[in-house]
Specification:
Distance between the termini: 31 Å
Strand content: 35-45%
Strand order of the largest sheet: 1-50-49-45-46
Largest sheet: 5 strands, mixed
Structural class: mainly beta
Number of helices: 0
Oligomer: single chain
Helix content: under 10%
Mean pLDDT: 89
Low-confidence stretches: 1-15
Length: 567
Amino acid sequence: MIRSFILIGLFSLSLQAQFDNLVTTDDGSTLLFQSTWRLAGSNDTNLLKIFRWDAKGFSLIFSPPNPGLAEPPYESPPFLSGDGKISGYVVYAGCSGAACSSQKPTLVLNGATAPAGISPTAGIQVSHNGRFLAAGTTVVDLTTGKATDVAPGDIPAGRGLGNNGGLLTLTLIQQFIVHSAAMKLSSKPGVVIVTAPVVLGTAMSAAENRVVYEIWSDGAATHDQLWSYDVGTGQSTKLVEIPLNSAVGFSRFQPSISNDGSRLLFRRQRSDGGWEAVVQDFSADSTTVIAQILPSSSNMVITGDGKSAWVHRVDGKLVRVAIDSLQATEVPGRHAWISLHEGAPVPGSYHHLYGGGFAVDAKSGPPPGLAVDLEGLSVPLVSANAGELDVQIPWQVLPSPQFPAFPMTLHSSSSPFESVVQLDLETAAPAFERTGMPMDGQREIIVAHQDFHGVVTMADPAAPGEIVHAYMTGLGEVQPTPPTGSAPTALSNVSIRPLCWVQPPARPQETAGVTFAGLAPGMIGMYQVDIAIPADIAATQVTLSCVDQFPPIGVIGDSGTLFIAGH
């Protein structure tokens, strides 16, 4: 069985941003957010943390310890009152085995005291005026301490707690085997805002005069729709609709609304697949794009006064945009981070880091002040663009069966943050280079023709008997070994050549002879494997596989589709 190291992902959402679940004060002067970043030099874990930003800069609010439990600890997204005096979150302690069944979350509340017996839940909210706290469907008046279950038997509908204590709730409805939910506002008993199979992102103005909600268009869930409900008139208006894709179960629009309900911030997908932050002004009946943003979890928020919005812009910068003038004020620093990494985790190998903030464009290269190290060893930066940083794993690092995980740390001199991923190093783990990005649905292995006139594709297939050049990482030691960060000055052969074969569909595999395996001339950390395609191959496409000949445990390698010219 082939064990492939092609993609090592740290998050379920590819290329996730790093200013997530933003909340802000009414004037926008203070932010709370979640991130897996750590403050430089802190030696903190790479678990999700809560940070604060204000006029003093960034500071750490909460970092869960990582004791190596089966279920690591984590915390809910933070909440914040409009004046910034009340804030908090819910902590879930890590656990293992039977302890997980009795785990109790803990509410951390700053600036106020919750009544005894309040049940901590992930959906805890505070009203903008700081008077009310909602835990589930229980609303607490913090001025009197009185707690009221405003909707017994219902569940909270995401964001939606007003300055009068009104709460958005969902009543689950079952009709035979089909489920739906009726969304209501507790201060308007008997009024159903919408009934739908699924209600996703919601937001309610502090004045409780406007509710925004996201639903699937029908039971087949072909489209996501964003609607606005006018509480005074009882009328709903569809704002935008986009085709449903792989984001089933997640809010596509992630709405955020001003206190008076006059302005709505939401995200919208662009025709090129990217995302943009959009403001809907209900008073002016206008829609304005204020920034291109990164795909993430609520990495944008409108201020309560409706004058500005905070967004995590596509260039990786945290930016405050004045909505009327569109003037953007950047928080100083280029905050780079790693979300995914790809390639064989083997000393000497070329390696891809994906995330953001690496460079301003694809031509300028890594900016000054950006650095990567692996367990204290400097890692050469080979190339960079805004979302990808290519590096070479140093030849000097020594994998160990007892301690295989090595921290790779990304630093930026202009940022207080550093980003860390773990590499489980191997001595050899052959992996093909591929076209496109890790999240692309169609990727092809990169194999050049014998005469190097181009790469092998369906339109330009390899010929039977041709010797093709496959580009790979992870083939391990070479002789002679060039210095880390340098291309070979002469032919540099691998110590042990990989075994390769081709297999037509539903037919036995055939050995494909390897005539050369070593570092690709003129390239840093990239291997070239020259493979002779059998002359009698009779298929238009085959699976090409290459594996390490003598792995310590199991068979390590990779495979991909290779197109062959028909007879």
